[in-house]
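Notebook, bench 3.
Goal today: get a predicted structure for Protein kinase domain-containing protein from Rhizophagus irregularis so we can plan the truncation constructs. The sequence was checked against the plasmid map this morning, with no discrepancies at the termini. Length recorded as 184 residues. Pasting the sequence as submitted so the record is complete.
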Amino acid sequence: MVSESQLFDAIPYIDPHKLIDKNFSLNERSDVYSIGVLLWEISSGKRPFCDVLYDCNLAKKISQGRREEIVSGTPIEYSNLYTKCWNNKQNNRPTIKQVVEKLKEIKENPIFINVNKNLENITKESNKHDDYEGCNVMFQIKIMKHASHELILERLSSLELNLHDKLSNIREKLKKDNDIMNDT
């Protein structure tokens, strides 16, 4: 049985249309919304709305358009991508294919990376940011600015696996939520 806490944990990742209408059928654009939130989470190094109680009030605010703030220093192409993904209107969200293509483009375009810094600088910078809870190690945008091109490519390659795992967990929680709602 899924606890109420576990159900509320998924709120930030759920398509706002589902938060408003329990009969709304999740679809590919719903997954894109979740991916947008995950991309934001990667750039921030923390869970979305980590300073807010995950409850019905948060769900209502999200359904009314509340989103996290863009992380300062995030490359504009990356922040534009995740804000397009979490657009309240499904038809204004990119397709999953477009998200993947844009991530590949960002991955292959080192304009935002300072390739003159070495791994020693990464270590120094990461030690300054050890207060980030739940961060993906050394994948914060602040640290990316000082990373080598190879390290960034490695981290972006692992991104696909992280996104897939998180989406699977979200889908599982939503399925359990639907099962519980249908039983009542």
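The chain has nine helices and no strands. Residues 4-110+159-183 form a domain with the Transferase(Phosphotransferase); domain 1 fold (CATH 1.10.510.10).
Flagging this for group meeting.
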